[in-house]
């Protein structure tokens, strides 16, 4: 037992010895690391210092309400940034503004890539101003339209406007206005706009002026109608534009055409020498339309093609131009053909065959601005139906001579804007009974030959009218006068002023409508006028003055004729056409001598063949 106890003690002592040896071995292994630890720490500090010195720099930092705003190199940069921010804020807010926030500046160490320039520091200060907001804005031609935080709102607004002008025929679309989209500061109370609100502002209408290049067939009246302008405004915008005299054009629309009965009713008793001849003329003129009465409101002032003029158009703020290709049905005007007829006097005409317009299908490219066509050109055309020519018989029978064998004088000088005879116009075969001679308002109208005044006054669509009788069945008409210088019964001599050019009656511009009638049948005045269209007026009266054979007695009190030039006169307001059914009394009834010398019933006149 004693031996067993000693053995146990020995075993415990051995285990302690083994543990002691194990600890010694562990200490021998960790001892080198502990010896190197101070060296390793010093090396780490050195490396961190080197890295920091390479990526950071000493600088200044500005804070606002505990938040860092910007880093900068020197205080001078900060002072300049504050000055710029205050100036910009004052301009935007339209009041003197000072940065009164709790700003603090201190020296610090910051990465080099975070140091900001003067503009960057200014922007950071602007962002800190609570009275401002940074938004995307849309402006058109310098006019502010709206603002939004999201730039896609502006894109959507522009697309809404484009959709307004897009049709299946649209081939291209272009915005003509100057559009500016900016990211800028505005007062915080400005508010944001929706895409719909911006689109409504872009489509708001207002009068705007544009340049326009005249197209073939353009007239002052068609251009002003196209752009919804007044003629006065057109003349104001184009003060240096020389306008041609008004003339009828085939492109002018007519809402209503007077029927034959109404047209014939324009001829008064002064134009119908006797009941028999009046009945014959009514039958002969069954298909005649008085083009003077018909075209009174359709006289057009032509514009030379290719001119650059200024127009005014009601247009949205955002001006959009489109190019469209469309199929149009267009009228083909019939040709005018003539055939000689020896049963009528020279200068007389009658319809042998009615003209009918044809049709063509045209592919046209049209340029529109704000939805209004401003230019076009045809790409192709296909004839759908041929036009039937208007065939007119023209008289070849020798004309009766005027008293004394003299020619008429031109009543005024100027270009002829509408000639005598039939033509296909406004979809109808129409007859113009005289010449339209353009002249300035107030120009003297002279008697074409010696004669007697059988009418002087207002007469329906003719406006102020003078009718002279020259004997041998000849009458002359002078219409649309602004002033009348003679009275019924006055005897006048060739070249004597009898009226002044105007635009009364159905007329859109000053001119003299001049007719020659033989036995009440209209005859082309050019057969009795000297020279070309613009022949000068002879001022000297004939050497011998022989009274007409069938003139009425001269009034015992002939008023003294004016010796001074006719003063310009403002044209009166156009009178309304006469209603042939509303009156049976004619103020221009001719003297009995003229009635007795009326034309024969069998006399040819401008009329259709039987």
Outline the fold blueprint:
Elements: H1 2-55, E1 56-64, E2 67-72, H2 75-93, E3 103-111, H3 118-127, E4 132-140, E5 143-148, H4 152-165, E6 170-175, E7 179-187, H5 195-202, E8 205-213, H6 220-226, H7 231-237, E9 247-248, H8 260-265, H9 275-284, H10 291-294, E10 299-300, E11 308-316, E12 320-332, E13 336-345, E14 349-353, E15 358-369, E16 372-385, E17 390-397, E18 416-418, E19 421-425, E20 428-432, E21 435-438, E22 444-446, E23 451-458, E24 464-471, E25 474-484, E26 491-492, E27 497-501, E28 511-518, E29 521-523, H11 592-596
Parallel strand pairs: 13-17
Antiparallel strand pairs: 1-2, 1-3, 4-5, 4-7, 6-12, 8-11, 9-10, 12-15, 14-17, 15-16, 18-21, 19-20, 21-28, 22-27, 23-24, 23-26, 24-25, 25-27, 25-28, 28-29
Helix pairs in contact: 2-3, 4-5
Description:
Residues 241-283, 525-610 are annotated as: Disordered. This protein is an alpha+beta fold and 610 residues long. The chain folds into four domains: 2-50; 58-127, no CATH class; 135-203, no CATH class; 247-320 and 401-596, Distorted Sandwich (Glucose Permease (Domain IIA)). Helices cover 24% and strands 33% of the residues. The strands form eight sheets. Strands 18, 21, 22, 23, 24, 25, 26, 27, 28 and 29 form a ten-stranded antiparallel sheet that branches. It has a four-stranded antiparallel sheet with strand order 6-12-15-16, with no helix packed on it. It is elongated and about 170 Å long.
């Amino acid at each position: 037992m004693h031996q067993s106890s000693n053995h146990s003690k020995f075993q415990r002592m051995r285990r302690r010895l083994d543990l002691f040896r194990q600890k010694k071995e562990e200490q021998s292994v960790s001892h080198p690391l502990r010896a190197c630890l101070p060296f390793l720490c010093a090396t780490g500090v050195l490396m961190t210092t080197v890295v920091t010195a390479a990526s950071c720099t000493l600088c200044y930092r500005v804070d606002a309400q505990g938040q860092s705003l910007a880093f900068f190199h020197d205080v001078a940069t900060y002072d300049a940034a504050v000055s710029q921010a205050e100036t910009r804020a004052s301009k935007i807010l339209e009041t003197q503004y000072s940065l009164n926030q709790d700003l603090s500046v201190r020296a610090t160490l910051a990465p080099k890539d975070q140091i900001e320039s003067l503009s960057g520091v200014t922007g950071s200060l602007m962002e800190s101003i609570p009275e401002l907001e940074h938004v995307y804005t849309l402006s058109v031609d310098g006019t502010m339209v709206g603002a939004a935080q999201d730039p896609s709102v502006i894109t959507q607004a522009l697309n809404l406007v484009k959709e307004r002008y897009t049709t299946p025929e649209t081939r291209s679309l272009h915005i003509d206005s100057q559009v500016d989209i900016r990211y800028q500061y505005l007062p915080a109370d400005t508010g944001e706009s929706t895409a719909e609100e911006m689109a409504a502002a872009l489509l708001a209408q207002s009068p705007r002026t544009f340049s326009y290049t005249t197209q073939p067939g353009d007239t002052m009246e068609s251009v002003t109608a196209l752009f919804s302008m007044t003629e006065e405004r057109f003349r104001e915008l184009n003060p240096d534009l020389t306008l041609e005299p008004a003339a009828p054009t085939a492109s002018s629309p007519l809402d209503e055409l007077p029927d034959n009965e109404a047209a014939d009713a324009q001829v008064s008793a002064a134009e119908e020498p006797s009941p028999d001849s009046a009945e014959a003329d009514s039958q002969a003129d069954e298909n005649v339309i008085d083009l003077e009465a018909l075209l009174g409101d359709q006289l057009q002032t032509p514009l030379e093609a290719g001119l650059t003029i200024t127009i005014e158009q009601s247009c949205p703020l955002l001006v959009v131009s489109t190019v469209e290709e469309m199929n149009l049905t267009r009228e083909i005007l019939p040709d005018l053909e003539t055939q000689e007829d020896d049963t009528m006097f020279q200068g007389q005409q009658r319809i042998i065959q009615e003209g009918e317009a044809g049709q063509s299908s045209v592919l046209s490219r049209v340029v529109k601005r704000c939805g209004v066509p401003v230019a076009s050109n045809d790409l192709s055309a296909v004839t759908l139906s041929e036009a039937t020519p208007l065939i007119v018989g023209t008289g070849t029978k020798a004309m009766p001579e005027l008293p004394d064998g003299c020619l008429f004088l031109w009543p005024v000088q100027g270009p002829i804007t509408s000639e005598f005879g039939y033509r296909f116009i406004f979809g109808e075969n129409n007859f113009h009974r005289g010449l339209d001679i353009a002249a300035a308002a107030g120009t003297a109208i002279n008697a074409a030959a010696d004669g007697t005044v059988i009418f002087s006054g207002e007469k329906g669509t003719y406006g102020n009218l003078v009718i002279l009788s020259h004997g041998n069945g000849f009458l002359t008409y002078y219409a649309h006068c602004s002033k009348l210088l003679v009275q019924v019964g006055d005897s006048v001599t060739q070249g004597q002023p009898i009226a002044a050019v105007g635009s009364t009656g159905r007329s859109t511009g000053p001119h003299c409508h001049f007719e020659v009638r033989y036995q009440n049948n209209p005859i082309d005045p050019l057969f009795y006028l000297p020279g070309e269209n613009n022949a000068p007026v002879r001022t000297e009266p004939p050497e011998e003055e022989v009274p007409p054979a069938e003139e009425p007695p001269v009034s015992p009190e002939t008023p003294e004729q004016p010796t001074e030039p006719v003063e310009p006169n403002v044209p009166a307001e156009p009178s309304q056409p006469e209603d042939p059914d509303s009156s049976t009394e004619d103020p221009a009834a001719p003297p009995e001598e003229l009635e007795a010398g009326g034309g024969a019933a069998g006399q040819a006149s401008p009329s259709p063949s039987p």
